[in-house]
Amino acid sequence: MMFRKLLTVRRLDAELPREVRAALVASLFAPFGSLIVGAVSGAVIGVMVSQRAGDPWMTVCAFAICLVAVGRIVSAYAYRRLARPDVVGFEARWQRIYEVGAWSYSGLLGLLCCLAILRTDDLGVHLVVATTTAGYAAGITGRNAGRPFIAISQLLLAAGPLSVALLVYGDALHFGLGIVILLFMYGMTDITLSIRDIVVQALVTTRDKAALAARYAEQANRFDAALNNASHGLCMFGPDSRLVVWNERFLELSGLPREMVRAGATMRDLVRGSIAAGNHPGSTPRQTMRALITDLSGETGQTFVGLGDGRTLALSRRLMRDGGSVVIFEDVTDRRRAEERIARMARFDELTGLPNRAQFRERIAEALKGEGRHAPAPFALHVIDLDYFKTVNDTLGHPMGDRLLQAVAARLEGVVEAPDMIARLGGDEFVVLQFATADRGEVEALAQHILHAVRAPFEVDGHRLDIGASIGVALFPAHGTDGDKLFKCADMALYAAKAAGRGALRFFEIEMDVAAQARRALELDLRHAMARGELQVYFQPIVDLSTDRFAGCEALLRWKHPTRGFVSPAEFIPIAEETGLIIPIGEWVVGEACAMAAGWPRDMRVAVNLSPVQFKDPHLPMRIIGALSRTGLPASRLELEITETAVLQDSEATLAAMHQLQHLGVHMSLDDFGTGFSSLSYLRTFPFQKIKIDQSFTRDLGRDPGALAIVRAVSAMGKDLGMHIVVEGVETQEQLDLVRREGCSEVQGYLLGRPMTNEALCALIAPEEPAQVGAQAGA
């Protein structure tokens, strides 16, 4: 039974965690004082007994006991100094050291008992060694029970020789005492094993509790770290509405003094402290508490709180099962500002700060609705468009244009007073709502003030900018009873104002609507004109004055409408340019002109006008190349006429396109010279081979000396620059003689030939090269 118990203990001991075994080994060397007392006591008893008995063997044994006692004290001290329980193998090494000392000491003590009983008859000596050994054995049982095999070994080594000596001494008393010692040894072994179980269980329990406490501490540290490093502030209140938990972020956000925030504080205490810290401006503790209770009531609640430094906190509350609650604090200052900015952007123009189109529509809808049962009051709608703003953008850049718009907005705000409203719709377009007025005179007066304000020069970043404005006005209810209709009427009036020469004011008139409808109908018909074959290319001859032969022809676009007949280019070309139809129409004209010119004599060129809009088309060079490739016309026989307006609008893009075409061999002419923003710098910058003097100067030849002076000056300049000079609009023989005398190169006009179809042209030039022209014309 005892043996099986020992085997079980040995197996369980091998399964003990290392830290438990280390604690059991440490118990062998502690307490240090008891180990010293035990070692010294045994040595003293040994010396006293050997001296009384006078036996040399006992003396040697006593001396050995003293030496071992000293060694054990030294090893115990060394363990205290060198203890490293964290080092693997440390406990096993020191256990072996202890075993050597303990077993040596116990064996010598048992030997001393055996010698004292068997070599002396002194009962006093017998009593001393027997009681000393029994006491030592009993002490070892309790002291070293954590390592039971060491304790039992010490018990056997010390009490075993004593029991044997008593049994063989020879009298009944000693024999009986020997039997008692044997029973004592069995009992002490059983006690040792029991104490060992208690000690090990206590150590394991302590270890588990320590591990559990460490885990709890680690979890608590993690919770504290997470809580105090959270981006949101947190407060937890118990069922009694008193503060239980809070984090550092709460202190940062609230601005409350640290000493004021303590466990057990009520929400009212925190509110008082928050107000004292400068938060909740203009609110008393009672008002703040009432607002918080109202907004945060229910299972979940949220509210926003303004702080004294301008920040905004979002407070959200969630109830817990025990009746407590958690309040989360979030700094939403940036988010609220962003939301406010987005809300403002939805109603205000970001560049100028004026109300935008959306707010304008809201206001006009309110004005049309009226107040209560009252009918809506009359008002005026002014639509304002800046004149020459695009020129500022193109020449000085968009940043300058933006600053000019801001300056215009500021000036308009100084003219338009409440309750009237000014808004920016986009680009350089503004609108003014002039409320509660039916007097046309008042409306016109405000419009004239606006025109005068915008007409005054602007100083922007050191630049003097002279612009103007055109205004179209519609009146409610005279011109419409809904916002879209009124805006459409004002827009038509604006179109009329710009057509009148800019810087003008126009009120809507019914004729404008009629004209707009007609213009719209013309636009719809124009969109289908090319597909229906209504567009035609006519040609007007150009004569070389040095040979009086045809040098070429200018291609002119004509539109023969099925019901209206021929439509003037002055009517449909602007529509084509505004709608972008000029791009496909212009490409078709170039292709037709090249195809027809391919059948003319080889020394005749064809001239085609290009719109400024076409030069904004990045694919223009490829369209020209495609036309030449399809028709087989040499590039040197194609001449492209460009107005000064095209050069002015986007000079860099125009110059790049012209250089591309010039490299192909296409000729360039400056058309209508003198009618636009004439600048001699164009003649040096752009690769023109020809200048065409506008017919407005030709018309006055013979009547106005100034016109002749201009023709003479341009002709002389052309010769110096190596350019050909073409005079347009020659209708009389006198005009022809004058331009011939001034040395002009070529002429064009009704005197020499009106615009005609290709068939008529071929018949006209047939006598010059009848075989060639006739063959190609009939092809």
Automatic annotation (TrEMBL):
Record-annotated membrane-spanning stretches = 20-45, 57-79, 100-118, 124-142, 149-169
Which PROSITE patterns does the UniProt record give? EAL (PS50883), GGDEF (PS50887)
Q: What Pfam family does this protein match (any one)?
A: PAS_7
**Which keywords has UniProt assigned to this entry?**
Membrane, Transmembrane, Transmembrane helix
- Where would I find the EAL domain in this sequence? 519-769
- InterPro entries from the UniProt entry: Biofilm_reg_signaling, EAL_dom, EAL_sf, GGDEF_dom, Nucleotide_cyclase, PAS-like_dom_sf, Rev_trsase/Diguanyl_cyclase
The record ties this protein, via NCBIfam families, to:
GGDEF
Recorded protein name is: EAL domain-containing protein
Q: Which organism was this protein described from?
A: Salinarimonas soli
